[in-house]
């Protein structure tokens, strides 16, 4: 039995009862012979309450002070959790991100981890203690100021520590049973995925599946660290995110569909009447990049020969929509397009799985399923293991269910989901 | 205009409004040309709420984790205060006790400061920023664990930083106007003291005056750091605690009474029928010391020649009374006294001022005042600048008022309070 890193989110440690429940689960892992490092988030709504307080004293709080403020949240939960474990007769020591050696860059509120030096954590577990580490926080390598890692930061802390400590695996405890073939709130027949490769999980995450964020999956993939996503409220096995042995995968030529993700958080901007000559698209996306906005899907329509003009559409988070429209409006004279269209009533639906490109039937089945349920496709984008389409937002539930059924993902079948492509 | 250290307690920063009020006061000091270092406590009842949470998860929380938990409180208040100051257009940076270089021993929950290395604080003020420092907390020199300084710790942080930084003075902001000649809730005519020497303030503090704790006064005296105790709710001058120039004091042979303190937090234990022979008293106080209890006043009665037995009485905090009685009961067979009496209905009244010993009229006036108002004296203890007596608890208010009046401290007189001794 080796070392395991466990991460508990805010809903798992929302109150004293929750903390005691989590403490028992940790002690169980100790009793089973594991060394345990625990990464914990702030209790329940603590972080939101601190954000509200900051808003009361200052409309635009400083990033450095905001990080100092927010990191008080994990300090409370980790100390209480350590006390609760000690109360069950096991040794436990809590550590801040800085004490745990989580070294970051100096970008407050969304720092990136650049090194992990977990000497004190290793010392604690060598002594037989459970090490409790504050998630979401680190210390800047250059300024020595306290930083926070931004959205989903605690998951990243857990994976980074697991990698640095050479853990067997990283367990991410949450309030659902694992990763599902589609959002169970939309697709009642969605099935829990027992095992999924890093690449597929990464595509699902960036396509709208909320359970894990792409950032922590990316980190785990780089270091080949298995992640086990599971519920802190049950003892069930959850979803393992890890690489199959090479042989197992290479021997299989069929497409293996992991799941269907959807995302309604994006908007579509169409730049109408762009002169179809070299450099035009570059100017458009330079204007967006200069405004520090990230875009997702991009499609350029075929140019109409009669006018020499084309349209370029792209999607980006709704929250960035206003900024993007402003940036493009400012750039319009230099670029010389005709007009802009903004549309935030869209949804993105993505099918994720291995072997798609070599199994053209997958794309056909996907589009047929949408067409049969009357869903119109507005944009298409594909990667090695993903096909995404943009549809109307109010059609998304129907579209996801249709695709889920078409690929045999519905839970009547107890077998592994395999789609054998048969040509276009 | 030099450097000033300001300390604000929990009641001054209890909510967003309080924090903004304090921020304005700090900015005023900056506008007046001062460099400012601020020491801040946790907001309002934060610390008590965290203590309650700890009690919910563990009946006997670990000292290390308890300190980790409690230090979240100042982290919140200091970050918010820094934001509020920045919002007024002035630069501000917050620092934990550890970042501020407050180095302590490893005794959790009541650590003592052993060094202050305020390099980062000096750097911040050199840049023109206000440095906000978390009070009450430090970092252990040997274990690098977070520690707290115990009761009144934030005042001690402020004085220690003022000394290390070579500040002009240390301002302790509180919810009263300063130090008074007696507790204004008991003596309506009590006057605010404009200036008081360290020694007198120290005696008042250990005799029951709550505004400053002896610990921080002791620290300030050692480094000759002037303390200004004042209200954060008004602009009034408060009480300066500092040494008079040597000449000013030495030239004056009259007794100068600083004030009357009282304390109802102690109990009296009388050991009855102790054999009057060498070593008996030592055995009694060894038993108390072995139980790690501190005692305050001690009086041994004159032995009755007929029996060869004597009584020994002492006072100690009520909270330690039970432990002391247990320790003495266990030691009774070895010591051989007759019985124990416990009395927690007592009060201690202390008169503090310079020149008492050489002005015997002071003692006489003190005892006459008590006698004239029908107050019986049970124990007496004196130091160079203090006389303390123990009376019944229910007589304390009357006794304090009588003494206050007898020494001309009542506020009708606007002059400095001087008592000219005239012999016994």
Short account of what is shown:
The structure is a homodimer of 424-residue chains. Chain A has 424 residues and is of the alpha/beta class.
Describe this structure in words.
Two copies of one chain form a homodimer. The first copy, chain A, is of the alpha/beta class and 424 residues long. Chain A has a domain at 3-251: Acetylglutamate kinase-like (Carbamate kinase, 3-Layer(aba) Sandwich). The first copy, chain A, has helices at 16-31, 46-57, 63-70, 72-87, 119-126, 153-165, 198-206, 214-223, 246-250, 280-290, 321-335, 361-372, 396-406; strands spanning 3-8, 35-40, 92-95, 102-104, 113-116, 130-134, 137-140, 146-148, 169-174, 195-196, 227-231, 239-241, 256-263, 266-275, 298-300, 309-317, 339-343, 346-354, 379-383, 386-392. In chain A, the strands form four sheets. In chain A, strands 3-6-2-1-9-11-12-10 form an eight-stranded mixed β-sheet, with helices on both faces. A four-stranded mixed β-sheet of chain A has the order 5-4-7-8. In chain A, strands 13-18-20-19 form a four-stranded antiparallel β-sheet, sandwiched between helices. In chain A, helix 1 (16-31) packs across helix 4 and helix 12 (361-372) packs across helix 13 (396-406). The longest helix of chain A is centred in the first third of the chain and has 16 residues, at 16-31. Chain A is globular, with a radius of gyration of 24 Å. Chain A starts with a strand and ends in an 18-residue tail after the last helix. Residues 413-424 of chain A have low confidence and may be disordered. The A-B interface holds A 16, 19-20, 23, 50, 53-54, 56-62, 64-66, 68-69, 71-73, 75-76, 78-84, 86-87, 92-94, 99, 120, 144 and B 16, 19-20, 23, 50, 53-54, 56-62, 64-66, 68-69, 71-73, 75-76, 78-84, 86-87, 92-94, 99, 120, 144.
């Amino acid at each position: 039995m080796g070392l395991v890193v466990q991460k508990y989110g805010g809903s798992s440690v929302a109150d004293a009862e929750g903390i005691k429940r989590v403490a028992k689960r940790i002690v169980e892992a100790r009793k089973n012979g594991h060394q345990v490092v625990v990464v914990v988030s702030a209790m329940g709504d603590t972080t939101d309450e601190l954000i509200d307080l900051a808003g009361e004293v200052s409309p635009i709080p400083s990033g450095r002070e905001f990080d100092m403020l927010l990191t008080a949240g994990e300090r409370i939960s980790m100390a209480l959790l350590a006390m609760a474990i000690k109360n069950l007769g096991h040794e436990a020591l809590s550590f801040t991100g800085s004490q745990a050696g989580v070294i970051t860059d100096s970008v407050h509120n969304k720092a990136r981890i650049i090194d992990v030096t977990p000497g004190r954590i290793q010392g604690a577990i060598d002594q037989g203690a459970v090490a409790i580490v504050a998630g979401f926080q680190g210390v800047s390598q250059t300024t020595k100021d306290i930083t926070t890692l931004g959205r989903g930061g605690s998951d990243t802390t857990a994976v980074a520590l697991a990698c640095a400590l050479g853990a067997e695996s990283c367990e991410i405890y949450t309030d659902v049973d694992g990763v599902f073939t589609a959002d169970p709130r939309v697709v009642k027949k969605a099935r829990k995925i027992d095992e999924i490769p890093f690449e597929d999980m990464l595509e699902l995450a960036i396509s709208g599946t909320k359970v894990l964020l792409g950032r922590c999956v990316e980190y785990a993939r780089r270091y080949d660290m298995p992640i086990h996503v599971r519920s802190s409220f049950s003892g069930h096995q959850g979803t393992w995110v890890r690489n199959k042995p090479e042989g197992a995968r290479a021997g299989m030529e069929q497409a293996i569909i992991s799941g269907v993700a959807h995302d309604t958080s994006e908007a579509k901007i169409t730049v109408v009447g762009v002169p179809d000559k070299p450099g035009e698209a570059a100017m458009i996306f330079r204007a967006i990049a200069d405004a520090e906005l990230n875009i997702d899907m991009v499609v350029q329509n075929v140019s109409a020969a009669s006018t020499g003009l084309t349209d370029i559409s792209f999607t980006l988070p709704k929250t960035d929509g206003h900024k993007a429209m402003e940036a493009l409006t400012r750039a319009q004279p230099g670029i010389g397009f005709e007009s802009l269209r903004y549309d935030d009533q869209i949804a993105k639906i993505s099918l994720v799985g291995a072997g798609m490109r070599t199994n053209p039937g997958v794309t056909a089945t996907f589009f047929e399923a949408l067409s049969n349920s009357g869903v119109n496709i507005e944009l298409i984008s594909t990667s090695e293991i993903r096909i995404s389409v943009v549809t109307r937002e109010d059609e998304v539930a129907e579209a996801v269910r249709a695709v889920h059924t078409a690929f045999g993902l519905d839970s009547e079948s107890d077998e592994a989901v395999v789609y054998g492509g048969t040509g276009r």
